[in-house]
Specification:
about 80 residues; mainly alpha
Length: about 80
């Protein structure tokens, strides 16, 4: 399935154009946030943090942004308490 997402990316992404559109097409094709982040890292040669920021802040995934941030904050708090 991941190769299908690579093919979709190669077809949809035009250098310098709207990344939100490409991310939306990947989501509609069934790619998860994580798969999309991994794909951006691989194809664009950008950092994990940069790819994550593009996906989490994209129009396609905006409905999940609050939940993602809450989960990350809660997990960070948990890790602090484990020490």
């Amino acid at each position: 399935m991941y190769l299908d997402f690579e093919n979709i990316f190669d077809t949809e992404y035009k250098d310098g154009e709207d990344m939100n559109r490409t991310i939306a097409v990947l989501k509609r094709s069934g790619a998860t946030q994580m798969e999309t982040v991994m794909l951006l890292v691989r194809k664009l040669k950008i950092s994990l943090a940069d790819a994550d920021s593009l996906v989490v802040n994209s129009e396609a995934w905006k409905e999940n942004k609050d939940a993602v941030e809450k989960f990350r904050n809660d997990f960070g708090d948990y890790l602090k308490n484990v020490e």
